[in-house]
Design a protein that fits this description.
Its cofactor is [3Fe-4S] cluster; [2Fe-2S] cluster. The protein is α+β, with helices and mostly antiparallel strands. The chain has helices spanning about 35-45, 120-125, 145-155, 165-170, 175-185, 195-210, 220-225, 230-245; strands spanning about 5-10, 20-25, 70, 75, 95-100, 110, 115.
C-alpha cells in the first residue's frame, strides 16, 4: 500500500507544533501500525531528517506505551486494540492517515507523538497500592475470595494505563483509569484497611493534575483497548461519597 501520513511534529514542550505530510510506499498489510512508523522513520533518516518520536515498548498490547490518536480515535479504528496491535490491513491503498499525540493538558507533549503520562504515576503513588510489611510474599490463596468478586477485581486490574480514556474524553477526564485502580482494590479484602484514604487521595491527586470532570458520555469505555467498564466509575463515586461522609478530612 501507498499511504499519505499527516503527522504531528513538535520539537519540544514549549515550541509550537504543526501537522506535516509524509508519504510511505510499499507498506505490507501485515505490518503493525508501529512497524509502518518504523518504515517512515527509516526513510526520514536516509533523507537526513529528524525521525518521528513516538512511545512504544512491548509491542504486544500489554504495556500501554503506544499512545497514538489515529484519524480522531484513540489507538485507531479497531475496537479493543492497542496501536501496536493495530495492523495496516485495517487501512486501504491510497488512504490518508492523521496521527496525533494524546490531547490533554495533564499529558504535555514531550516531542512529536510522545507525551508525558507521569500524572498517572503520581495518582497511583497517592494511593493506588496496598501497604504490606516487607518479608516473604503471602500465599496467593491464603484469603478465600468468591469467584464473582475476584473476576470483577481482575477485570478492573486489566487496565494498562495507556491514557486512551483521557484522550477520548471531551473533558480529558481520568475517571475511568482512577476508577479501575480504586475498584480493583476496593473489591478485595486486602484493600480494605486503606479503602477510605485511598479513594480520597487518588481523587485529590487526579484533580491536582488538571484532568477534567466526568460527564458520563461513555467515550472512555468505548475506546478503552482492554474494555474497562463504566461500572467502575459508579463504584468510584460510591467509594468517594462513603469516604467523605465518614472522613476526618473535611477539606
Amino acid at each position: 500500500m501507498n499511504l499519505t501520513l499527516n503527522v504531528w511534529r513538535q520539537p519540544n514542550r514549549t515550541a509550537p507544533g504543526k501537522i506535516v505530510e509524509y508519504h510511505v510506499k510499499d507498506i505490507s498489510p501485515d505490518m503493525s501500525f508501529l512497524e509502518m512508523l518504523d518504515v517512515l522513520n527509516e526513510d526520514l533518516l536516509h533523507a537526513g531528517q529528524d525521525p518521528v518520536a513516538f512511545d512504544h515498548d512491548c509491542r504486544e498490547g500489554i504495556c500501554g506505551s503506544c499512545d497514538l490518536f489515529i484519524n480522531g480515535r484513540s489507538h485507531g479504528p479497531e475496537k479493543g486494540t492497542t496501536t501496536c496491535q493495530l495492523h495496516m490491513r485495517k487501512f486501504s491503498d491510497g488512504d490518508t492517515i492523521t496521527i496525533e499525540p494524546w490531547r490533554a493538558s495533564a499529558f504535555p507533549v514531550n516531542k512529536d507523538l510522545s507525551v508525558d503520562r507521569s500524572a498517572f504515576d503520581r495518582i497511583i503513588q497517592a494511593g493506588g497500592y496496598v501497604s504490606v510489611n516487607t518479608g516473604g510474599a503471602p500465599d496467593g490463596n491464603e484469603i478465600p475470595i468468591p469467584k464473582e468478586i475476584s473476576d470483577r477485581a481482575f477485570e478492573a486490574a486489566t487496565c494498562i494505563s495507556c491514557g486512551a480514556c483521557v484522550a477520548a474524553c471531551k473533558n480529558a477526564s481520568a475517571m475511568l483509569f482512577v476508577s479501575a485502580k480504586v475498584s480493583q482494590l476496593a473489591l478485595l479484602p486486602q484493600g480494605q484497611p486503606e479503602r477510605k484514604t485511598r479513594v480520597e487521595n487518588m481523587v485529590a491527586q487526579m484533580d491536582k493534575e488538571g484532568f477534567g470532570a466526568c460527564s458520563n458520555i461513555g467515550s472512555c469505555a468505548a475506546e478503552c483497548p482492554v474494555g474497562i467498564s463504566l461500572e467502575n466509575i459508579a463504584i468510584l463515586n460510591r467509594e468517594f461519597l462513603a469516604a467523605k461522609a465518614t472522613s476526618n478530612n473535611l477539606a
